[in-house]
UniProtKB/TrEMBL annotation:
InterPro entries: F-box_Sdz-33 (IPR012885), Zygotic_Embryogenesis-Asso (IPR053222)
Domain Sdz-33 F-box: 158-224
Protein's UniProt name: Sdz-33 F-box domain-containing protein
Native organism taxonomy: Eukaryota, Metazoa, Ecdysozoa, Nematoda, Chromadorea
Protein origin, superkingdom: Eukaryota
Length: 285
């Protein structure tokens, strides 16, 4: 069926949950393969489990068809559809399933991106172990990582992940976030979403001062977003940076230029929307 579409596939995204989903993205749309697994499917001892049926959903959530499992297990389906594209991303919900790491490594040897999410209010030790095992298995190979409320421990902390050679790292509401640690990270692009009580303008100011002194030589972009109805004191953020303000944009956005000791310039964009604030650091061309 994939061949019959006669469309170039931009990327393949796998969502590993109770009902695994394989999403194919094209230039003007997408197509989803939803694999219905047995009702007892609560853990993933291996990828050899046979799907009961496969639903195919196209653009606009329109049901295209439901077909039999084609006598293919979950691993076969992933390999089959993934064979049409080298850009493969995987999303793992650690609170839903227990993953068999060797099976995943054999089935997904060339992942480009891994997303690990946990939406439990109170994650337990099993969730933490699941998260650590997944990240250890793929962290040395992937270039892009997204973490959403993932429980981590001392054995594999956010600091360990940040110092890995990554192209991009996206962090969503991680309880162990320390902004000053970002100065030692080895990433090109970093996006952080955090809560107001976790956000420190003074720490962010210190982070930029460390960049001026030579930290984060690989960093090209850093954006930090947090919810707040109070407009932050941008003077605290900019204190001691010797910044030069450029022409302001519409909507209250302000732009500043800073320069490090090597003479490399970067733009700092700050804005407050009434419900949230953001600081975006971008290396100048």
């Amino acid at each position: 069926m994939v061949k019959a579409l006669h469309l170039p596939i931009l990327d393949v995204s796998l969502r590993m949950k109770e009902r695994p989903v394989i999403n194919l993205r094209f230039e003007n749309g997408s197509c989803e393969f939803i694999l219905a697994m047995p009702t007892s499917y609560q853990t993933m001892p291996s990828l050899t489990s046979l799907a009961i049926s496969v639903r195919v959903i196209g653009r606009g959530r329109v049901l295209h068809s439901t077909m039999s499992n084609q006598q293919m297990n979950l691993g076969n389906w992933i390999k089959h559809i993934g064979s049409f594209c080298e850009n493969i991303n995987a999303v793992f919900s650690v609170e839903d399933l227990k993953f068999d790491i060797p099976s995943l490594r054999n089935t997904l040897p060339k992942l480009r991106r891994i997303d690990v999410v946990c939406f439990k209010d109170e994650p337990d030790d099993r969730d933490m172990l699941n998260s650590q095992n997944l990240l250890r298995a793929f962290l040395s190979d992937v270039r892009n990582v997204t973490l959403v409320r993932v429980p981590l421990g001392e054995n594999l902390s956010l600091q360990h992940i940040g110092t890995t050679n990554l192209k991009s790292l996206e962090i969503n509401f991680q309880s162990d976030l320390n902004l000053l640690d970002v100065s030692t990270w080895n990433v090109e692009s970093c996006m952080i979403w955090t809560l107001a009580h976790k956000m420190s303008i003074r720490d962010l100011n210190r982070l930029f001062k460390l960049w001026i002194k030579g930290s984060n030589p690989k960093l090209k972009e850093l954006s930090i977003h947090w919810g707040t109805e109070i407009t932050p004191d941008w003077n605290v953020l900019l204190g001691g940076l010797k910044s030069v303000e450029t022409k302001a944009k519409e909507g209250g956005t302000r732009n500043f230029i800073i320069r490090n000791f090597r003479g490399i310039c970067a733009k700092i964009e700050v804005k407050h929307t009434g419900r949230g604030a953001a600081v975006v650091f971008t290396l100048s061309d």
